[in-house]
Amino acid sequence: MNVIGKAEDVVTRTSLEGTLGILKACVKAKTVKRVVVTSSAASIIVNSTNLSEFDESVWIDFDMCKAINLCWSSYSVTKTLTEQAALDFAKEHGVDLATLIPSSIVGPFINPNLLASNNIALALIYGNRENCHTLSLTPMVHVDDVASAYIFLSECPKADGRYICSHVVTPIQEFAKFLSIRYPEFPLATDLISEVKEVKPVGLSSKKLLDLGFKFSYGPEEMMDGAIQSCKEKGFL
């Protein structure tokens, strides 16, 4: 969802109309057994709680999100309102619905453009100061694990409600060490690390998803291998 340069109300209205339109079509069809809606960790992480790890009970603080006024604030508000509307609609109309809440999705990609999540993961290689700060806070998950989670929630009889899908959370200092060892051919902008405050990355608990029986298959090695290979193939590295 590209929200840069677009008014928040326009983005939100488009997202709500699209999602609710699909759900209404599902009700009308009477043949759809379950719907899995894509949400985002952006519907959780911007809040004023002092929790060290967030679960599905947490939602963003709208006032805080708007006060921060970052470039992705509209995205965060839109994803939250859309997910809440989908859950409310499902409850009212008896739709069997689950929402999947992935963290930053990293790995190989077919899109001709460099996606924001991979751009953030590669911040130390690209030397992007703003993205380094974001990287220091960002939990990640492999794109194939997200795809598997969609299938899993579609098929699991007990699936209901919100499910966080997040697998890797690493302090930026440790992540830089990992990158330097695994990809020595890329010089890292290590000078930017000292500018990043030593804060603990945002913890997102996938316990609810794991308790259903889901298993993650990929770690940071596969995430970064895939992202870097795709970037090489498309001329971004």
Automatic annotation (TrEMBL):
Highest rank taxon of the organism: Eukaryota
Keyword Oxidoreductase: yes
A Pfam cross-reference name: Epimerase
UniProt cross-references to InterPro entries, sorted A to Z: Epimerase_deHydtase, NAD(P)-bd_dom_sf, NAD(P)_dehydrat-like
Gene3D superfamilies linked: NAD(P)-binding Rossmann-like Domain (3.40.50.720)
Domain NAD-dependent epimerase/dehydratase: from-to ranges: 12-159
GO molecular function, one term: oxidoreductase activity, acting on the CH-OH group of donors, NAD or NADP as acceptor
Keywords assigned: Oxidoreductase
Keyword DNA-binding: no
Stated name of the protein: NAD-dependent epimerase/dehydratase domain-containing protein
